[in-house]
Amino acid sequence: MTDGILFIDKPADMTSFGVVARVRRVLSEKHGKKVKIGHTGTLDPFATGLMILVAGKKCKNANLYSKLDKVYEATIRLGQNSSTGDPEGEITDISDKVPSLAEIKDALGKFTGKITQRPPIYSAIKINGERAYKLARKGETVVMPSRQVNIYSLDLLDYTYPEVKVCVHVSSGTYIRTLAEDIGSELKVGAYCIQLRRTKVGKWTVEKAVNLDIYIFKA
């Protein structure tokens, strides 16, 4: 296939660009020519789940998929902050307070509907033409503009201190790492996202996706 849509279940500890590069290499070798591949929305390296890739002529339609709503399952760790909002950053102890279940539910309820969110500096958003995470790694001061996003639903799946597991349905452009940090701030205990899995993009679910290693083997 040189023109079409691919549904990949991204593994952890790989960048989205790494996924694109591997698929491009396999398809290019198979067809004996360079195949153009693009993604329709990045996932953080520590995250797993559904990535929609576009190939060949379908690349021009990438925006049709990148603006779709998304569903994630996330595990949030309370009591600490991370410099990157995820396990890859510098971890700082904030509080040993143990919020009650009622406090957790109350905090989650404050983050549904249209909210204002400031994306993390370690993100792929461009600031003056350069990726924010590249500027941050250089030690430069990065000021991220806030944006309005929509949290359609935020459901508690489990709470066993210090971990809170949620399922969240969000508009495009929502950062779950930021949501985790904001929940920690609301509870006054700190928090960061330790696990993240994208389970749905628009009408497509991760169950329809192919494991990256299996795809490369079969391609």
Can you characterise this structure?
With 219 residues, the chain is α+β, with helices and mostly antiparallel strands. It folds into 2 domains: 4-67 and 203-218, Pseudouridine synthase (2-Layer Sandwich), CATH 3.30.2350.10; 70-201, Pseudouridine synthase. The chain is built from 6 helices and 14 strands. The protein has helices at residues 16-31, 62-66, 101-109, 132-137, 176-187, 212-218; strands at residues 4-10, 37-39, 48-55, 70-78, 80-82, 91-93, 113-117, 126-127, 130-131, 147-160, 163-170, 191-201, 204-205, 210-211. The strands form 3 sheets. Strands 1, 2, 3, 4, 7, 10, 11, 12, 13 and 14 form a 10-stranded mixed beta sheet that branches. A two-stranded antiparallel ribbon has the order 5-6. A hairpin with a 2-residue loop joins strand 8 (126-127) and strand 9. The radius of gyration is 18 Å and the shape is globular. 34% of the residues are buried.
Helix percentage? 25-40%
What is the name of the CATH superfamily of the largest domain? Pseudouridine synthase
**CATH C-level label of the largest domain:** Alpha Beta
The main pleated sheet reads as:
10 strands, mixed
Cα end-to-end separation: 9 Å
Structural class, please? alpha+beta
As for the CATH topology of the largest domain, it is: Pseudouridine synthase
Shape: globular
As a whole number of angstroms, the C-alpha radius of gyration is 18 Å
Q: What percentage of the residues does DSSP assign to strands (E)? A: 35-45%
Average pLDDT, rounded to a whole number, is: 88
Q: Based on DSSP secondary structure assignment, what is the total number of beta strands?
A: 14
Which stretches of 5+ consecutive residues score pLDDT under 50?
none
CATH architecture label of the largest domain: 2-Layer Sandwich
Number of helices: 6
How do the SSEs run, as a string of H and E? EHEEHEEEHEEEHEEHEEEH
How many distinct folded domains?
2
